[in-house]
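Minimal example, chain plus MF3.
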Amino acid sequence: MIIYKTESEIALMKEAAMLVSKTLTEVAKVLKPGMTTLQIDKLCADFIKQHNAISSFLNYRGYPFTICASVNDVVVHGFPNDIPLQNGDIVSIDMGVILNGWHGDHAYTFILGEADPAAIQLVKITKESLYKGIEKAIVNNRIGDIAFAIQEHTEIKNGYGVVRELVGHGLGRSLHEDPQMPNYGKRGSGPKLKENLVLAIEPMINLGSREVYTDEDGWTVRTRDGKPSVHFEHDVCVKRNKALILSDYSIIEAAEKANPNLNTSYYS
Ligand code: MF3
Ligand code: CO
């Protein structure tokens, strides 16, 4: 069942999404080689607590952390750990909060220092594909129009692997609501978009093959070929002429550009 939101509910969801954006901005300020993803998890847990929110992920189906930290060949749902991050790592941080009963859930991928140019290009194209999908999140389009726009930019035009096993989702009082939001599909297919549907759109794109597997920990999803994967996620409200993005990358990007340990060469 698809649940449409009222304007006042969307305002509350905007606050939840923005708290995630602000938390990821704190990460962008301090991220550097040598830091561990457990340290980032603690930073995020402390920050959301200070802002009167709780984690959407912690204890969700037994998930044991506040964030997912997915480095290099980890696609999504990576456990924070005590391995120091290295120059050249591709680091996706995904986080969800519950604020005043509403979920925010979004993700950003950072590049630490001098990375493989092919991986940097993957980051650029994956982020672009998210915005190409968002452009289609308007009334009377269908889920398949968003999905195809993402697949076209990544798989069809750039030869990357679009993960099939994991999808985006509706978002609201629950972390995962209907409908499912795949990153591949046919134009004109799937549920029709109506005003004030809130979607978490989250392309998970592999440099090589689309094949993935899950580690023994039951969560960590990795690429089969060991090549890098990139994940971006925005919370988006369907509107008549132009989708409303509830989360905000501009504050994360400003912090990213100001941090000399992060590679933003793909912006220019
Ligand atoms: N953004 C992801 C999702 O929507 C993260 C979920 S992690 C989990 O599924 F721990 F909450 F499962
Ligand atoms: Co999500």
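Residues 70 and 246 are 23 Å apart (CA to CA). The longest strand covers residues 90-99.
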